[in-house]
Amino acid sequence: MLLKGKEVANQIKEEIAKEVQSIVSKGVRPPHLVAVLVGEDGASKTYVKNKELACEKVGFSSTLVRLPDTTSEEELLAKIEEINNDDEIDGLIVQLPLPKHISEHNITQAINPAKDVDGFHDVSVGRLSKGQDTFISATPYGITQLLDRYNIETKGKHCVVVGRSNIVGRPMSILMSGSNKTGNATVTICHRHTVDLKKYTVMADILIVAVGIPEFITADMVKEGATVIDVGITRVDADNKKGYVLKGDVNFDQVEEVAGYITPVPGGVGPMTIIGLMQNTLKSHQAKFNV
Fold first, then answer.
1. Predicted confidence (pLDDT) per residue in 111-169, tens digit
2. pLDDT digits (tens, 9 = 90+) for 202-241
3. Which residues pair with 230 in a beta bridge?
4. Same domain, 100 and 179
5. Same-domain status, 43 and 148
6. Domain limits at 250?
7. Does some domain include residue 6?
8. Residue 156, H or E segment
9. Domain total for the chain?
10. CB 52 within 8 A of CB 66
11. Alpha-carbon torsion angle 31, 57, 268, 116, nearest 10
């Protein structure tokens, strides 16, 4: 069965839009999200555009700050500080990846934790690791909501996370093992260097893959009836009008035959990531206005 992230995302957008309408009816301004895009990376521009469209759909204000790829780290830090100090802005994201001369760590740590709606700041990650209320990284947050909306049981299940990034793999493992509604699972973290990876993946009731290698997971690596969450999305050269096709980290055609549930690529995790971002922005706004 397909886990249709796009459909679930549209449902949640409608719910957020109603919440925003209620906020505005009380005379309070709508939530405001700012995205900073440095350079001309094609995929990044697409992601930011999708976030702008989502803001429009739910009634948020949104601002795109576009900077050339020659922007220095100091100039970007100054722009972040300006946004940090603007009380009319609730959420700030700096689209990754950044040009090589700019430290992603320095930039993510410069964002005010109260506006860190991507959930990348050390404060956000630290609070998450301790089970405290915080902004959850948008992709893991979206995945937990997808599991919830499809009533997929996680309590007592074995979840294998393939990938250990600070953006997806590590926070995902914390959420799945935590004492929350879509948690209480036993979690194993693997990665591309795990010896005999298949030994672990075939034990997974819930398999979450985020390694950035197209079709890395094949049918023989998946337990019959497992829930498979494919976070990856890579452009692979193809003989078509676009010149490429989008592939996930899971060989979809193979794995669909054995999985109980599986996310498509595109249309699975991607739309839910944007939902996580929207909900974090709403959360920031609500904390400020107590509405």
1. 999 999 999 999 999 999 999 999 999 999 999 999 999 999 999 999 999 999 999 99
2. 999 999 999 999 999 999 999 999 999 999 998 888 888 8
3. 209
4. no
5. no
6. 138-270
7. no
8. none
9. 2
10. no
11. -10
